[in-house]
Amino acid sequence: MWRVFFTSAVVAVVVRSAMNWCDSGKCGHFGAGGFIIWDISGGQEDYSYQELLPVAIIGVIGGLLGALFNQLTLYITKWRRTYLHKKGKRVQIFEACLISLITSTVSFVLPLLRKCSPCPELETNSGIQCPHPPGTDGNFVNFYCSKDNEYNDLATIFFNSQDDAIRNLFSAKTFHEYSAQSLITFLVMFYSLAVVTFGTAVPAGQFVPGIMIGSTYGRLVGMSVVKFYKKLNVDEGTYALLGAASFLGGSMRMTVSLCVIMVEITNNLQLLPLIMLVLLISKAVGDFFNEGLYEEQARLKGIPLLDSRPKQVMRNMNAKDACKNQKVVCLPRVSRVVDIVSVLQSNKHNGFPIVERGQNGESLVIGLILRSHLLVLLQSKVDFQNTPFPCGPGILNRHNFSDFVKPASSKGKSIDDIHLTDEELGLYLDLAPFLNPSPYIVPEDMSLAKVYNLFRQLGLRHIFVVPRPSRVVGLITRKDLLLEEDGNTATTELQSTSVRSILSTSCKLSFSLLRRNAQN
Amino acid sequence: MWRVFFTSAVVAVVVRSAMNWCDSGKCGHFGAGGFIIWDISGGQEDYSYQELLPVAIIGVIGGLLGALFNQLTLYITKWRRTYLHKKGKRVQIFEACLISLITSTVSFVLPLLRKCSPCPELETNSGIQCPHPPGTDGNFVNFYCSKDNEYNDLATIFFNSQDDAIRNLFSAKTFHEYSAQSLITFLVMFYSLAVVTFGTAVPAGQFVPGIMIGSTYGRLVGMSVVKFYKKLNVDEGTYALLGAASFLGGSMRMTVSLCVIMVEITNNLQLLPLIMLVLLISKAVGDFFNEGLYEEQARLKGIPLLDSRPKQVMRNMNAKDACKNQKVVCLPRVSRVVDIVSVLQSNKHNGFPIVERGQNGESLVIGLILRSHLLVLLQSKVDFQNTPFPCGPGILNRHNFSDFVKPASSKGKSIDDIHLTDEELGLYLDLAPFLNPSPYIVPEDMSLAKVYNLFRQLGLRHIFVVPRPSRVVGLITRKDLLLEEDGNTATTELQSTSVRSILSTSCKLSFSLLRRNAQN
């Protein structure tokens, strides 16, 4: 955490220095711009308890619209995956072009249909001009209005970069800039476009469109608040901000992080309590209908995301119940290559327990080997041996640590890609040097809720379910883990890892491999 | 987390409403005041890269002074505990009185020794008056200065509430308010007093004094920055804020939380990067010497705090090594009372494995019982039975869940407090209904670093070290834990916890107890 923290601090300082340097005009086109900060200073600095009702309403709207957004995007993504994207990559490109065409048309044509409005009287020291001069960005876009003191309110949102549109929606002291009709038109169109665009082949982002949608209905609510609570010092821009928070909360369902983001991008701490309330209400309303946007999409992709808490039903299940549908496939320590290949072909398990005969003839689970590591070993072939006995020392010198690392951008190897001759299939492979010697284990009758917590907290991928142990070798408490730097090291040095004593034959274990395995 | 978040939001809104209501004067003495916010607006809004050097210096000073503070308080607390507090509670009261007397004397006498300074010229619209009128709080305290336009700079810090003193130190646009001599005098005196006061019988707090110390030397550095970088728009108050952050960082060693607190209490986001840098530097410098204040004190109290990472040496140790100094004391499922008493008297273990003969005569570990639960059972006596056979049903009706809860304010029961007759000692006790049927287990040769992570992440108190398992019953992966709400529940309902099948005799397990145990 403190590394992230340190990096952020350095980034902030460097960016600030670079911006200062660029302010002198030495950076050409990079000189303009800066942080995306939608400053709402100059607007509302305080709030009264009467405003809690409209704030709650914004939260509820955000929850409803956010949940609807998640549901619609889920349906469309499913439909895309099932029908559209099977027809090849050209369809994806065509789809993206079509949507961009629709977006452009709508953005240009809709404002043309609106009538121009006369400019309101503005405070001279607010820095806002109506209409703003050509070539600059800002509120009150003239668009094709004929008269000099007129502006088109729909073009002020549509015909702008999204950054500027948000800045205009958030802007303070610009009462009655937008008509309710324009805002509703924009909301409907933009919401539909956002739903359709999400999941196309274009990396369009979800954050800024979300703020756009939210700030539109937020400003709508703000306009009615201004109308009904005339005595209060209320600003429409503040409500646009709360609306943005509510839609993001209703769609993404994050609370604390979104709150920090909203405070950061508006540079305003005063409205923190209202933002918190709005986020919580919208999250609560949204959770009533479905899960967050990212959870839904990740689930659709088949990523096994675990909720933060085990399901209620897990309290009455135990570890054995969770794995009773699948048969465990074990491998002996020294396996025939043909056996390994047939095991890998016959199932899709990602990890296999390795079993060995102990000194007294009883079987002993000596560790877990990953499918991906087996595939690497089968492909490299250097470890194949003629005898079914444990290998000699030095086997690890043949491998590089990096051989076992899965490339980030590949789908991983498959057993079908590996071709072995009949001669090779008859050879043996000693798996001991490559296994994870101590995966986490749970007794078979442990509550599944406890197993679940183990998975979640430690970020595991495999757990061995073992029979109830017959005896307890030791009992570790917290105090046993408080090794004195000076005290216990003497006894420590003498200890060798008894992993070695169990795999007592001769294979030297590479610590780097062990450590990698230890991460499971 | 979201509960805390929601509570904070509600608190903020309620306090704000109450404050609004009190502003109308309806609350009497409660009307004054508000949030403790040391507003630094009006001061520095920006920073340049030349300021990074003085900021780094502040960080280093904070780290050094913070580490020294931790070390000194550690020594003094040790000394107090060994010599002073053994002499009775009167000594503690006397000590507190003595320190308060010294503090008062120093606060009053030291300013008297300083000469009065003439008031500087202040901007008329800054709202600061020199000296401030009697009966009000603020900068430029007149104290016993004879002339009307003079003030005593040491009294401005010393002879004020700590809140106001900090506000004065943070205040912007008050250049040359303090002389370096006064600040150094204050720093030395206040630092010594803070060291001596920490750990007395008075709840004095550590946060506000820390800010006082830090802002003093911060302002000292700020004064020299103002002197050396004359061209920059630098404010002494900003450096006082950074100094405060650095001392807290150097002493408490928190980064993110302190950063949030500093931003909150100053209501200023602009200086966030500098605060982050200062916190990190002071933490890094402090960590070079010792641990944080709270860690040191907790360790002194014997609380087994675990660091966030396992020690390097643990990588080469295994689970068995950690518990080899202690013999595990097991209890049979149905134990004689006299045996339980002698086990509890003979050692200080807090948990005991329970062992039972299985159906085939082999021994089986059926769970863990806590010392505290055993003591409750021994004290209540209602479960004592005549026969050495497992108990009948209904035993749990004799107990209330709350019987097993340790009162928050007690030291817990001791075996010496429980008196049993010879007759009672001869009876038996079936422990099965009261044990934790599935504590976490690790194989004896698991790397101690992995065990450590298990402890830390799950917040455990006991772990069973068991022999390497002989077979794997099942293998759980993440996908097995993604129960479909509709799919798998059918199979689930049919399962009974096989804990019951193991304790197959007749005792019904109370789920409330089980769940409590499950939290270990």
Question: How does this structure look, described?
Answer:
The structure is a homodimer of 520-residue chains. Chain A has helices spanning 2-23, 52-84, 89-113, 153-158, 162-170, 180-197, 207-228, 236-252, 256-266, 272-289, 293-300, 319-322, 337-346, 371-380, 422-425, 448-458, 489-494, 498-502, 511-518; strands at residues 117-118, 150-151, 331-332, 334-336, 351-357, 363-370, 428-430, 441-443, 462-466, 474-477. In chain A, the strands form 4 sheets. A 3-stranded mixed beta sheet of chain A has the order 3-5-6. In chain A, strands 1-2 form a two-stranded antiparallel sheet. Chain A is elongated and about 95 Å long. The first copy, chain A, folds into 2 domains: 36-119 and 158-300, Clc chloride channel, CATH 1.10.3080; 322-518, CBS-domain, CATH 3.10.580. Chain A has 19 helices and 10 strands. With 520 residues, the first copy, chain A, is mostly helical. Strand 10 (474-477) of chain A pairs antiparallel with strand 9 of chain B.
Summarize this, please?
Two copies of one chain form a homodimer. Chain A is mainly alpha-helical. Helix content of chain A is 48%, strand content 8%.
